[in-house]
Write the structure tokens for this entry.
Amino acid sequence: MRWLVGWSSAATGATGPGAPGTGSVGGRGGPGRGRHDGYGGPEVYAGEDGGRIGHDGETLHPVGSRLLWGDPDPLWAVGDWRPDEVRVVRADAQTRVAVLGTCGATDEQLRVGLFAARGGALRHLTAWPGSYTAVVQVGRRITVCGDLAGARPVFHTPWAGGTAYATAALPLADLIEANLDFGHLAALLAAPDVPAAVHDSTPYDGVRRIPPGHALILRAGAREIAGYEQVASLAVAAAPVDPDSAVDAVRDALVEAVRARLSAPRHVPDIDPGPVPGMGPAERRAARGMPVPGIGADLSGGPASTTLALLAAGLPGMPGTVLGHGTGAGERLLAVTFNDLAVGGHEAELERAGALAAGPRLHHVVVPGGEETLPYADLDGPLTDEPGASLVTAARHRARLAAGSADHFTGYGARQVLDAHPARLADLLMDRKRRHLVRPVAALTKADGSVLVPARVYGAARRLARTPYRAGVENLADRLLHRRFDDPGDAAGAVGASLAALAWGGPGPAARWLTGEALAEVSVRLQSTAHRAGVGPGQRPGDYRARAALARYAADLRILEQAVELRSQRLHAPFLDNQVVRACRALPETLRVQPGARAAILRTVLKGAGVAELPTGWGAPSQASTAAAARAGLRMATDPLLALFDAPLLAEAGLVEARVVRKALRGAAAGEPLPLDGLADLVSLELWLRRLLARRGTCWTGTPARSRAVPAGIAPQRRAVSSGG
């Protein structure tokens, strides 16, 4: 894991900005000895030298950290950051900006953005190509910008009279010895697609998350959360957008996102220590968890991975240049395709991937995956910052990425930023654009074969367009309270999924297995946040659901990256960059909702970049379902999963009953029509809890051994779980 952490204190004294070896906040006049009421966290006091001193007389700072600037508001970078991934630009001793990650801005552009941020303009800090976190210090004011998608979140917590912040939640939980927030965990299972259920909470009680598209502003310890995106007027309709110019903007943003990664200095993984009998260089690197030097990309045969691979291989002077032509020539792009031998069904995509990789700019590698790469096949893994459903499929992704490069492009996020959420049909009705519903409804009718589909879809879209946000959330709260769940068979297929999505929110796939107390707790959270500021009258349901789906996907992708992390490898998801997300949000809804819109947009992007010939059938939706792999994995791992839920921690927390989950696992392995996504959520959360409680040590020095998250473990819950709100 790589993260940054710092804090802002109310103390006025300081040891001097950037003082080496200091790394702690505070000064004379800082918080006194002992725990600060209302804040929690380890007992600290301001020493005579102005540094924060822990229990054992040690200076408090993160383990394995690099100090970017010191007191009174220090900032550290923690983890295996590359030298080019951490940049600090200073205007003077008290005005500076730190950018961590892949950022395509020059130092001069960073300086201009710093001057703009000093005057209060934050959007400039988020408009450069790449994926990064920007931290600005202007005197005692600290500004930390999150991203639009939520793949690079920012967390904060009150601590020692001020506020600590980080890009990971676990370090802050260690700092304040946070217990688990069972209300948040219940909401993750009961209503994962509804932001009102979790709001700004995290799995750790007292640690908060800022929403996507917002920045955390700290002034001498006091915190403020401000949005940096323009807010559309509810009184004046937005100006019509030309589809061609909108697609051109997507192309330009994607090209710049890819170029920002390719322009970064090349990183060579650790030197191979030597040969192994019977293994070639590639097998040796994979066995040792070392990626191949250079640039690579996924090439599944689908439109998203194809677009990034061909863009990365085709930019002039970049990797993929044919030997003997141009500067830096001869470095071919490594294209990795995963071949699922255990399930199959991807033959057409594999054939297209082979045809795409036949050019001289790409080196194609096919990674076979047997039963050992099925979901649930490997239940061991590292502790991640938060739980995520991808924990059960981590081994599957790790097998593919082990054959990848030091810098590896992935098409993650393309579906979420380009496709139209079914709820956008209600937005079209609100804009009186009924004729644009004809083609998507016709496609659903063709997929289902029933003449009743148009009436059902139109009726659901019209009902959603006329339902206020507050009424929709209260209806969901009532459904959870009275355990009214849809039949799993009703949500099967494109039509069923679309009808289920035509609402402000619905129960999660794991909600049916939660206890009544846990569902009641989530119901209370929903009712208390239904009228929360930020979702006012006039909120468009399609746009709201699309942003929520993107945030959830980006959060799970962040957990996947941590679960499959290989030493010296970086995964790049350009579709989740701020500028790409902005360009995709500017696409007109009438273009989004048309069948095959994503493939058509990306085909235009490739054509504008000089790629005109694509294999026959490229962009067609895959007929293979991940449900087949999930069910096969459940059958293979039934015994370990039943043992996992013999005495589950989820039951100790009062969220589920063990016998109910065991019955569901047996039924799903036997082929019963149960929501497999819900079982993946339950198993992943149980695995994460076990890894968290089995953890030893802490993210900080200067604290005693007990100063870590969840120090007392999970206490049996005899009543409704706490709200944590």
About this structure: The chain has a mean pLDDT of 84.
